[in-house]
Each structure stands twice: as structure tokens, then as C-alpha cells.
Prior knowledge:
Helices cover 39% and strands 19% of the residues of chain A. Chain A is α/β, with parallel strands linked by helices. Chain A folds into 4 domains: 4-205, Pyruvate-ferredoxin Oxidoreductase, domain 3 (3-Layer(aba) Sandwich); 211-397, Rossmann fold (3-Layer(aba) Sandwich), CATH 3.40.50.970; 415-486, no CATH class; 491-612, Rossmann fold (3-Layer(aba) Sandwich).
Amino acid sequence: MSAEGRVNDFVIKLANVNGTGSASSNGLLMKSIFRMGIPVVGKNFFPSNIQGLPTWYEIRVTKDGYTCRTGTTDLMVAMNAETYAADLAELRPGGVLLYDSTWPRKDLQERNDVTVLGIPLSGMCNEAFDSARAKVLMKNVAYVGALVALLSIEMEVVENLLKETFSTKPHLMDANMQAIRMGYDYAIENFSCPLDMRLERMDKTDGYVMVDGNTTAGLGSVYAGATVVSWYPITPSTSLIDAYSIFCKQLRVEEDEGGSKVNNYCVIQAEDELAAIGMVLGANWNGARAFTSTSGPGISLMSEFLGLAYYAEIPAVVFDVQRVGPSTGMPTRTQQCDITSAAYASHGDTRHVLLFPADPTECFEMALNAFDLAERLQTPVIVLSDLDIGMNDWMIPEIQWDESYQPDRGKVYDADALKDMDKFYRYLDVDGDAIPWRTLPGVDSKGAYFVRGSGHNRYGGYTEKSDEYKDVLDRLRRKSDTAATIVPEPVVEHGVDVGAEKSWAVLSIGSCHGAIVEARDRLANEKVSFDYMRVKGFPFHSTVDEFIQKYERVFVVEQNRDAQLRQLLVNEFDINPAQLVPLLSYDGMPVGSDFIVEAIKTELQMQGAAAAG
Amino acid sequence: MSFIAKPKITHPGLPRNEIGLTLRDYEGSMSTLCAGCGHDSVSAAIMQAYFELSVEPHRVAKVSGIGCSSKTPTYFLGGAHGFNSVHGRMPSIATGANAANRELQYIGVSGDGDSLSIGMGQFSHAIRRNVNMMYVLENNGVYGLTKGQFSASADKGSKAKKGEANAYSPIDPVLLAISLGCTFVGRSFSGDKDNLVPLLKSAISHSGFALIDVISPCVTFNDHEGSTKSYAHTREHMLETVYADYVGAHEEIIAQVQPGEYRQVTMHDGSRVGLRHVDKSYDPTDRIAAISYIEKHRAEGAVVTGLLYVEEGSAEMHVTLGSAPGAMSEIPYEKLNPGAEALNRIQGRWR
């Protein structure tokens, strides 16, 4: 890469020890670049640990505004002696390594194709600060100071960010600024600043914000009018409930007649995921919009209740922020590995509505979609986010609120409707869309019925009669067909014309999107072009099948070992499985554009070789 | 079977309650339990209690788990919505339903298998949260629908129908509940309607979690000699301790006992529960004393019944959570939607 090419286009990786305050330093660094108008991507690779294990933060500076990782590291800030060797090995030839030179690190000199810059960060901080805690924390702030000089970050931007952060704690402001200055001064005095790899102000972040998908999903649930939440703590979904609770504390508290503060929401921390989903069903049955948030292990535990909700037709919204399985797996790493378990969760014939957000914007939008669909279809809706979307900061356009939005509460007979009715039957398909009408407890005894997971007929009565049982089960299948027409439609993006007929395409879901977009641009430079469909919901829209049938081969990109999206496609459509080629990334890291480019090239070469042979 | 409607013939002379309903208006569909099942007597007592309290049936929500007991909500209050959920998970359904609408009355019906084995976690945590509901545990010491296995409440040494003895110590729901901080704990016997109906009425009026453990013999699998949950054994070993005498908010109290033996607890809704002490030494407001009393008599083989523990004035779940008055489900969307301006303000912090 030329020196010019490295302006506003490189990857910084910061290797730290968990629990040393590095998260706020790295956040400060990323936010500073963002405020200089330069697009950034932040990825946190953290351990399942409170203190002591290695943790990395990766900041991609991307003038073109890509939203994924590349897979390459240009600048490594090596602050963790335990991972020095691996961190050094990861750096690309020509890259730069910055380390704490308080202690000699001979092994860091082993590569002669990289630039090594040593700064005695610990030594400087040990002298400058008194408390043991400050000595540890401030060395992380000091390397940000060094990077301000090396990358030519605007000092004023850093200062303003610190002022905002420590507006109520001026003494911390001073200490942080002192550490920044120390790192900055050392770099100016000892190195040739700035590096070739550096920053220049742009205006490409106007109208954008930096936020993670759990925050926007929690906020979307507030805007959707959800009032009851029950949950059990689990990484990486906990921060979604935290977000909902915090926003509710800001937006949903009012004074009652006596002047006491009262909440227009209810958050209940359950004893386990079984109870969490149970409470969600109880609340939805009783007319509130209620949801839970969990990850794979929680979906396993919730499965029995999800089957009941499907069969007894109770709305529910579940956010599944996916993490690496099976079992406890790697709780702080990302995957798209709950696709099949969510789609068919529970025993018996079940088929759940799934939504696949690709970024925090869609986490907000799909939170609203999920509640509307759950009540319209009277069934659970599972939003399959993942750790990458949920916990990493993404640069997204500001979310616009449509003031005309009204929640779709679905088919509910109120007291007036019941009054005029001869008799109410819970599971009758009166409108021909396979969706029956429901009633809420407490409204009118004429609407009373008995919810049961045991065999029931179209009138809501208990049954063990084969034809009556089948009648309801077949209608549920038809309801699933209705669902396919109202889940968000897939998005198709056509590749540029490179003068050749497109015999193959790419199909994917969720957080693979960013990497596919960049891979598409990179391959287009090599005269390789493809059409791309991103599926946003399940049951699949009919256009998914139509898209697949247009090509000889469709590469199905997803982040799990067993090609779960492909399984679902083969299962749901009359497709020759050989037509769907799996491209799978399942190492727990968010998929990068390098992987997609290489995987597609390899497949094309294999096919070319096969055709030639 | 439970879909079969009972013939609705209302005799003009039937007594009516304050809201003009007869006892028949509190019935449900035909029971499909075995003839003589204790659970049917409990259902009858529940109907009687709601009738006497003049509760509108549709303002009650019935929830249950899985098992013989959990089938019973179809057999009473046909005008109320019901939810027969999954095994051992009724407390979470009740908790969520209550979270959504605190203005309805909740009755949960469960059994000893449903509450003390598969569902002991949820049972315990609903008590901890002090969910405002009445929880009726129809306790027969046996799994009926799966043909007679011992449950966790079966007494050690108690004999199954074919003669084998239970090897494990029983879990006593009453002691468990008191130890967990349950704010209303009673025990009764399905064959003792005089005791059960006022106890149910008191539990319904209680603000918070009210547990009533009802010994309710299984005529098919656990009513033989050697069983400690049979009709004969329970009648013989029952020790009535504190009789709950329910008095409505506007009713006169007619004390039939000597002063000192009779005390009142004022319930949340203004009604009162008169406690007639059959055993003068028992104090149902003293938790430690209650536990040791029940333990002592249990060791002697006695089944202590009555209102065993009551703590009125404790904070039920919504009070602890600081919920707005009224039902969450009825808050208009305009009040729940923060609007575009708030969204812009929030996003200002994300730059």
C-alpha cells in the first residue's frame, strides 16, 4: 500500500489486559477519529473474564465508509506482555508496532519488516501519578497521547471529548490530559511525527452516530411501546435490557397524583430463562407488549414455552443476541449459530418468525417490526442479532423517527365488539388469512377462553379428535404462509456490469452484510461482479426462491459451521442443494472482507478448473 | 371433555350475591377428574369463595401448570380467562400476567408435582417477588396422570398403592413458603369446606402472594391404607389451629368466642380476617414460632391446618417495582412513545 493510500485507511489494533481501563482509552481514540469526520469501525475482542485475560480493540479507519473488518492489522499497540509474540506476528509487513519500553522486550525486535516504536509508558506514569490505580489506568491514556502525535489526531477534539466525559470530575480531566500530553510529547521528541499512516480531517461522519445494536434494540422496544420485560443475565444480550431500562428511567417515569415517581414500565429479572419467557407470555396474553432478550443457551431453555406460544398463538418478542456455541462455547465471541434452533424451536411441528438485522439501524427498526408482527400474527418473533452487532460500536446514519407510526396490535376484539357478538370462538379463521381473533382477560366474560398447549379445536375447546387437531395444525401452517408475505422483504443489490453474464450470486443474512459489500467492491476492481440478496426475515419471502433459481450457483455466506441458513433454504424450498454453495466463517471473529474475497476466488477457481477439466 | 358445557338451568329461587349473580355463574365446564377426587371439592370451594365475595368472574384470571390439579381451572369460573401453561411454569405466567395488568385477580392452581418438583424454582421465586395472587396447591402426594409415582410431598415411609414405601423426605410447601418469606400461608383439607372457603376468601383479599396448601386425596392412586394423604388419614391427623373467619369490609363482626382467643387482621381492601384460635398458643404473625409449631406437630404426624402465617402490609411486586397505578396494558401508546425530539436528544450523545 502506498504512503498516500494509508491516509484515513488503516487498521489499529490495541492489545490490552482486561480490567485495566483500556476500554475508555480505546473509545476515546475511536471517537476522536469519528469527530474528525473520518468513518471508523470499532470491534472489541474481549475475554469471558473480569480482570487479567488478554483483550483487543480494533479500530478500522475507513475513508470509504466500509462497516466491516478487513482481517489485516497495520498498527499494533502492544500493551500486553503475554500476547506480544502473537501480536507481533499478526502485523502486516511494513506495519508499525508501538509498545511499552519500560522493560526491555528483545523478542519484539525479531521482525525486520516492521517499524517498532518503544515508549516507556509505565515508567512515565509511575513517576507522574501517585495512586496504584492511576498508574495502571493512565498508561493507557498515555498511548492515546502518543497516537495523537503519530497519527496527527486533532488535540482539540481529544480535549473536548475528555471535557464531556469528565464534566463533573475536573480532577480526572486534569490527570487524563496530563497523561495525553506525556505520550504526545514523548512521541514528538523521539519519533518522526506523523507517520505515513495518518489521519486528515474529512466531513464524512456528518449525520452519523456511533452506537451498538443492543442499545438501539432496547431503544426500539421503548418506541414500540413495550411495557413488560423479563430477562435473565447472559452475555452478549444483557446490555440490551440495560439500555431498555436506562431509557425507560429517562423517558417513562411520571408523577402520580400524590407526586410520587411511578414507572410506566416493568422490568423483572427472572430466576432463569424459562421464567423469563414465561413472564413474557403471561404479559402478552394479558395485553401488554412484552419481550425478553437472551443468547443461544437461553433459546435452548425457552424452547418448550416457545412451542406453547406457537400452538396456543400468543404474541412474544425474543431478541437472541447470538454468541459462539455449542454449550457455553465462547460467550464473548460472535456467530450466527442459532438459525435452525430458533426457526424450529420446541418439540412438535413448529415454525417461528425470525428477523435478521444487519446493523444497529435495523436493530431499532426490527424491534418495531417484531412487536407488530408478533401481535399481528399472534406468535413469537425472534430477532436474531449477534454479538458483533449487539456489542460493537457501529457508525450508522442518525435514526429518523416516523411520528405517524402506530403500533399494529393485531386482531383483538374489545368489549364493544364482544357485546354485538353471539358467541366468541378463539381459533376460528374468520378472515381467511389463517389468523384468528383474540380477546384479553378482564374485558368481558363473553370473550373468556382457556389457553392450552394440549390438543384444541378451532373453537378453543379441548380435543383428542384427529381431524379437529389436524384442522388447527394445518391452519397454523397457512398462518406461516401469511407470515412469509409480511416479514421484511429481502434486499437485492445488483453487481456492476463487467461485460460478462452473471451465472452465480451471493445470498446472506445479518452481520455478514458489511463484509460482502466491501468484497463486492474489491472484486469489481478485478472484473468480478455479482448480484447479492440479503434475507431479512423467515419464513422466507417467495422472492428468495425466485432469486436463487436465476443462477446456476448461489454462494450462501454465513457465520456458523453447519451452513444453517443453507439448511433452512434447502428445507423450505424445492432447491437442488448443489446449487447452494456454503461460504462459512465460524472462528468467532466478525467475518471480514478478506475472507469473503478469498472464499469467492477459491470457489470460482475450483469451478473454473472443474469446467476446464 | 372439558369443552362439554353443563346445562345451564337457573332456578329463580337461587340465592344471589351483591352483584346479582348466583353460584351457577361461577361454574365452569364438566370435570373430567375421577369421581370422588379431592380436587373437585376444592373447585367447589373456589366457586363458593368468589361467589360470596361477589367478584365479577371476568375480572379473575386463572392460571395453571400441568397435572390433574392444573386441569381444574376449566371447571370453575367459566366467565374468566384461563391459561393452562407448561409443567411447573405457571408462576412465571402469573407473574407476567400480573405485571401487565395489576387490576385483575389472579388464581393459580397447581399440584405437588407441578410446584415442588419440576416447578419448585418458579414457585419459590414468585413467593420472593410477592406477586399479588392466590396460589392453591392441591396436594395429594402422587403423580396421577402418569399412574401413581410418588411426588416430592409424599411422606417418608408412606405406601404406594402396590405397597412399596417412599424412601425420601417430603417437602412441606407450607414450611418452604414461610421460610421464603411468603406473606400469607394457609393449609386446609379438600374434605373440610367450612375451613377452606373462608381461608380462600381471606387469601383472595390478601395483597401479595397467598399460598393455600390443600390436602386433596387422590382416590385412584393414593387413598389406601398406608398412605398419609388419604381421606381417612387426613381426617384422623388433621389439627385445626387457626380458623380464618373472613369478614367483608362492611360487615359486622359477630364474635362468637371469648376475647383473647379472637383477633383481627385488616386486609389491603379493608376487609378483615378474624382469627379464631383453636390452639391458643399459636401465633400466626410470628414467623419463627409458626415454623417451630408446624415442625413440632409434623414430627408427631399431625397435619396442622388453618391460617398458619400472615403478614399484611408487605409490599407486593408492583409496589417494589414502583409501577404506575392501573394496568400497563392499558397505558395509551401516546404516553409510551417518547417521540422524535427525544430520539434526537438521545442520539446527540452518540456523536
